[in-house]
Amino acid sequence: MVAQANHERISRGLSDRFPYPYTRRDGELFLSGQVVDLNEPLFAIEVEGRACGGIGAHPGKGERKHAAEFGYWLGHSLWGAGLMTRVVAAFAPWVMRELSLYRLCATVLDHNPASARVLLKNGFTEEGAQRCAVFKHGQVHDLRVFAKVRRSLNDAT
User: Fold this and answer.
1) Burial of 27 (0-12, 13-18, 19+ CB in 10 A)
2) How would you class 88 by CB atoms within 10 Å of its CB: exposed for 0-12, middle for 13-18, buried for 19 or more?
3) Which residue has the higher pLDDT, 34 or 111?
4) Digit-coded pLDDT (tens) for 5-37
5) CA dist., res. 43 & res. 51, Å (int)
6) Which of 140, 62, 139, 64 is nearest to 105 (CA)?
7) Pairwise CA distance, residues 37 & 43, whole Å
8) Cβ atoms of 58 and 37 closer than 8 Å
9) pLDDT per position as a tens digit, 87-100
10) DSSP-assigned letter for residue 141
C-alpha cells in the first residue's frame, strides 16, 4: 500500500490527511484508525493480491444520517484503465443499500477531471461548486460537488 500511496499526484487530489511523501508510519497510523474512523465503511482496493487504493464513506449524523460523503484513491500506476470507475460502480449502490442512504456525495478538486469523470460515468450529478473551498500547496481551489440521490429506499441506486 505504501508503494502505491507514495506519489505526489495522488496526494495532490486528496485532503491533507493523505500526505506526501507517504511513509510506512503514515500507513500504520491509517491502519490503526488514527486517520479515519475504521467503524465506517472502508475498503482496500486490491489488484493481484496487493493493496493499491482505497474507498470509504463517512455517514452523516442526526438529521443528516440519511446521507454520506465518500472518497477514493488509486495508485498512480493504475490510472486510466477504468478500474476506479468499476470500483465506484460496485461501492456506491452497495453503501447506499447498507446504510439506507438517500444521498451519496463526493467532492472533487477543480484540477482533477479524471475523478469527476468516474462519478459522472456512475450516474452522479454535478450539483455545483464550493468556490475557494480548499487551500492546498499554496493555491486556492474550488471543490466540485457530485451526488447520487434517490427519493425512496426502494429506488434503484
Assistant:
1) middle
2) buried
3) 111
4) 888 889 888 888 888 998 999 888 888 888 888
5) 10
6) 64
7) 12
8) yes
9) 999 999 999 999 99
10) E
pTM of whole model > 0.90? yes
Q: What CA–CA distance (Å, rounded) separates 140 from 138? A: 7
pLDDT in tens, 56-109: 999 999 999 999 999 999 999 999 999 999 999 999 999 999 999 999 999 999
In terms of Cα–Cα distance, which of 95, 99, 16, 86 is closest to 53? 86
Cβ neighbors of 22 (< 8 A, separation 6 or more) are: 2, 5, 6, 7, 10, 11
Q: What is the pLDDT of residue 130?
A: 98
Q: Which cell is 76 given?
A: 498512480
